[in-house]
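Note to self: keep these together.
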Amino acid sequence: MAVWNAGDGWKPDFQLIQSGFVTKFHSREVLAEATSMFARSGYRVVTLDASRWGGSHDMHRDVAVALSFPDYYGQNLDALNDCLSDVASDDYGWSLDDTGLILVIDNIDKFWTSEPRVAFELIDIFNRNATRAALYGNRLMCFVRSDDPHWEPPPFGGYEASWNPAEWMDKNRPA
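Structure:
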């Protein structure tokens, strides 16, 4: 499948991905509407709850299970990058019958507070591999939801994570 065609600029997935492969959400309802819409459009949506992660081991375990990593997964950031590169080329984690893959990380601010470097690396590695996926014509996106309406992580892969269109204005993300 081609990543997008001329004239697709109005489609929601194109609108989100043109600013980078990571999109921020604050409202659970807005996130639920977006993931439901993308699931109806054939995307595989994988949701992880970062508030359950007491440390990097928990994050590695949940990501590995959710994306069907092989048993030999080393549960470290280098191994995460290796396995996500395989996800990017559709070896596992999703199939080409899907329109694409959306990794949703709910409550990212909870994990970010306790493990900021690992949380950043998780999203940055996903972003890098989403770029690689696009080279293959595959669509990978990451949605991160924070209870903090003013959460501003540093750029991932040179791209700042943008707020979704419904919550782009500060007034639409009440504290």
